[in-house]
Amino acid sequence: MAGRGKLIAVIGDEDTCTGFLLGGIGELNKNRKPNFLVVEKDTSITEIEETFKSFLARNDIGIILINQFIAEMIRHAIDAHMQSIPAVLEIPSKEHPYDASKDSILRRAKGMFLLRTSDEYTHSYVMFP
Length: 129
Description:
single chain; 129 residues; alpha/beta; 4-stranded parallel beta sheet; 5 helices; 43% helix; globular; disordered C terminus; V-type proton ATPase subunit F; ion transport; proton-transporting ATPase activity, rotational mechanism; ATPase_V1-cplx_f_g_su; transport
């Protein structure tokens, strides 16, 4: 992929995937694998998880967007992902609004920020008794 950036991958319901595909994110890699999965009623959790893990393993993907209600189905796999790239972002769908309390990655980021803030305060108290 010389000279090209990384792709956005989408795991979502039909409306979400259609919107992003109309926006131009649809790509096939050299193995003819798409960078999206349309999750329908009959899509198995195993297929969702395998697709998610395959997106994590691809070096041409920089961001994975996933509908939050689908992320709930594979929460253990999302929680196990500790790398910053590809970034995993949970997004709302037309029928399922975003709930920040369910977003484990947002909670992890908040925890890192709070830890950094508390460390800075600790150091400032040490430096200025």
